[in-house]
């Protein structure tokens, strides 16, 4: 039995009682019978607007998966490395695989956005992305983990494009502050997720003499050799980084349920109304209003500015979390962790905080500026901060092993 036939039977079963109990097509939109026709139209417009705002909030929650995938890798990179028992140089394919997956996900979502139910597409993408994050810390092979990070980038690209396409179809206006509002969720979750990760990171327990056969429970490698001596070994507590991935996956359960519900509900309404497809599957943006010249500019802006520049900034923040910066006070990860977090973690949080402030600012300015200008401003603070960190802060030369 094909998927479409299964969906048709679900729609028929769900809607059978609706057609028997209600004479109207959509009871939620039906105004009282004693109300005039203009008032009925006003009532329906108000209900439709409330439904759009409700879906906008669910889109914002869903877009948080993009921020989770952006912010979780840096703080958890050292703990993932210790699970694999490899050095940092062997972790490099993770960044490449995640970036390639993101680009492929964006392309796939763009090609299928006109040919598939977007609510179902988004629900499946969120489900796959959350399930994939659960399995990442459970793997003990660098090749398998690279595959999972490729899938993470793929689902991140799918969710990124699908959420924006749905938002554009719900609110096809020139300014479209709603689209900017949706993107704020990614910057917010990327800023907050390190606070979750730090609770389950491996922490220093102290130092022991470097004997030929140290005790088994103490033979846990240090994240950094910057403060170790040849005669001492810094031992670390066991890592529970998998709990951070489980929590971030559980955060996405409500929007997964919501968009599968929208898929069945909207399909039910389309079946009762006699339409072949629902409103979300119809391109409401007039092609004549957006000629190829503007599309070409948007594609160039996406692939020559958004993906490479933001990808470089994101990879830089993740690596900076692990390598840290050199300080004249010679702070170690353990010493700064006792105060607030380690220095590299604070820098990572500072980067994503600037990303959040930029997104919030561009959302506010979208009321007054064009989409392209507000889109450009969303990268100003992260780019400036990365430039400052790159040229004015010396990088720590003691690489973690």
TrEMBL record:
Source species, domain of life: Eukaryota
Keyword Membrane: yes
Record bears the keyword Repeat: no
SUPFAM superfamilies xref list: MFS general substrate transporter
Keywords, ordered alphabetically: Membrane, Transmembrane, Transmembrane helix
Entry-linked InterPro entries: MFS_trans_sf
Transmembrane segments: 53-73, 93-113, 120-143, 149-168, 180-200, 243-264, 299-319, 364-393
Protein known as: Uncharacterized protein
Species whose genome carries this gene: Acanthosepion pharaonis (Pharaoh cuttlefish)
Biological classification of the source: Eukaryota, Metazoa, Spiralia, Lophotrochozoa, Mollusca
């Amino acid at each position: 039995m094909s998927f479409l036939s299964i969906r048709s039977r679900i729609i028929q079963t769900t809607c059978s009682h609706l057609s028997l109990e209600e004479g109207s097509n959509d009871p939620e939109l039906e105004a009282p019978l004693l109300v005039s026709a203009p008032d009925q139209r006003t009532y329906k417009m108000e209900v439709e607007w409330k439904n759009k705002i409700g879906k906008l909030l669910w889109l914002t929650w869903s877009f948080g998966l993009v921020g989770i995938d952006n912010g979780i890798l840096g703080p958890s990179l050292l703990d993932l490395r210790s699970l694999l028992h490899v050095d940092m140089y062997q972790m490099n394919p993770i960044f490449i695989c995640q970036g390639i997956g993101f680009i492929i996900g964006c392309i796939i979502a763009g090609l299928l956005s006109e040919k598939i139910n977007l609510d179902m597409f988004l629900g499946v993408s969120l489900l796959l992305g959350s399930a994939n994050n659960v399995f990442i810390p459970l793997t003990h092979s660098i090749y398998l983990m690279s595959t999972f990070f490729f899938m993470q980038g793929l689902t991140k690209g799918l969710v990124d494009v699908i959420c924006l396409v749905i938002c554009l179809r719900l609110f096809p206006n020139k300014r479209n502050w709603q689209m900017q509002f949706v993107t704020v969720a990614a910057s917010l979750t990327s800023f907050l997720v390190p606070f979750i990760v730090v609770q389950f990171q491996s922490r220093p327990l102290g130092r022991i003499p470097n004997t030929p056969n140290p005790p088994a429970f103490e033979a846990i490698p240090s994240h950094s050799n910057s403060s170790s001596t040849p005669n001492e070994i810094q031992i670390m507590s066991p890592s529970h980084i998998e709990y951070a991935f489980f929590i971030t996956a559980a955060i996405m359960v409500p929007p997964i349920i919501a968009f599968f519900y929208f898929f069945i509900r909207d399909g039910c309404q389309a079946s009762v109304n006699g339409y072949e497809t629902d409103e979300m599957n119809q391109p409401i943006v007039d092609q004549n209003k957006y000629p190829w010249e503007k599309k070409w500019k948007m594609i160039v802006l996406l692939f020559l500015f958004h993906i490479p520049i933001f990808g470089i900034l994101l990879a830089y923040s993740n690596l900076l979390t692990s390598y840290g910066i050199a300080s004249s006070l010679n702070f170690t990860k353990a010493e700064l962790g006792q105060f607030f977090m380690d220095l590299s973690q604070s820098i990572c949080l500072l980067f994503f905080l600037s990303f959040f402030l930029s997104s919030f600012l561009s959302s506010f300015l979208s009321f007054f500026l064009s989409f392209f200008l507000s889109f450009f401003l969303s990268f100003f603070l992260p780019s400036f901060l990365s430039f400052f960190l790159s040229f004015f802060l010396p990088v720590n030369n003691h690489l973690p092993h």
